[in-house]
Amino acid sequence: MTFHDFVSGITLGGITANLAFNDKINHWFAIIALLVFFAISYLISVLALKSRAWSRWVSGTPTVIIENGKILEDNMRKIRYTMDSLIQSLREKDVFNLQEVEYAVLEDHGKLSVKKKSEYEWVTRKDLKLHVDALKSFPVELIMDGKVIEENLVSNGLTHQWLEKELKQRNKTLPDVFYAVRGTQDKLFFDYYQDNIQNPID
After folding, report:
1. 147 vs 43, 143, 173, CA distance in Å?
2. What is the SS3 string spanning 112-142?
3. DSSP string, 151-201
4. What are the φ and ψ backbone dihedral angles of 106, each rounded to 5 degrees?
5. Calpha distance 97→146 (Å, rounded)
6. Which of 71, 114, 179, 198 is spaced 20 to 30 A from 173 at the CA atom?
7. What parts of the chain have a pLDDT lower than 70?
8. What pLDDT does residue 202 have?
9. Do the beta carbons of residue 66 and residue 104 sit within 8 Å?
10. Could you tell me if 2 and 108 are in contact, meaning their C-beta atoms sit under 8 angstroms apart?
11. How far is residue 177's CA from residue 146's CA, in Å, rounded to a whole number?
């Protein structure tokens, strides 16, 4: 969400909550306030669509945080963006090492866009000129929170016996499984309650 969306949502929610629960105010006043603020918010949104200058004023503009691998501290200071926020946003993009980043831009909706340096970018099957397998099926969740999802088994022509047989091949039983899914290439993935991790990261 943009800053305008956030403020509008919070304000409209506050007015609506008062309308629903506050019996000390005249409900007609709350209804009028709700309609007026909704109209103003809608008008601002329409103006932002029609005018680029207005859009930049309402929604803001993207800010470059990292350029050519260098952190732009002045830009971060202008938008009150901390290093902790930057590191967290990079981790959300599967980047754990700053030296991998060539450019990072904080978009006006608050998300960080990242371009890695060429040597750290993923190699695709197209780059390697490998055959790309077509999508065989949509992922089907079979077990969630330790409970078998019966309707998914039935709708995909699967049975308890088949599922138990697959687990038996892995020396497991149904009570051992926390989560199970059949992926896009019909491959099964199981996550068990016992992870065998001696010292998990907190």
Report:
1. 49, 5, 12
2. EEEEECHHHCCCCHHHHCCCCCCCCCCCEEE
3. HHHHHTT--HHHHHHHHHHTT--GGGEEEEEE-TTS-EEEEES----SS--
4. -85, 115
5. 36
6. 198
7. 1-4, 52-60, 130-136, 196-202
8. 47
9. yes
10. yes
11. 6
Burial level of 104, CB count in 10 A (0-12/13-18/19+)?
buried
**DSSP SS3 for 64:** strand
* Helix, strand, coil % over all residues of the chain, rounded to 5: 50, 20, 35
Contacts of 7 (CB under 8 A, 6+ apart): none
Nearest to 113 by CA among 105, 125, 124: 105
Structure tokens at 187: 């491959």
**How many other β-carbons are positioned within 10 Å of the β-carbon of residue 49?**
10
Residue 86: its H or E element: helix 83-92
Report strand pairing: 112-116 vs 147-148: unpaired
Cβ atoms 117, 69 nearer than 8 A: yes
User: In terms of Cα–Cα distance, which of 80, 142, 155 is closest to 110?
Assistant: 80
Task: Give Rg (Cα) of the chain.
Answer: 26
Q: Give the pLDDT score at 41.
A: 83
pLDDT at 8: 80
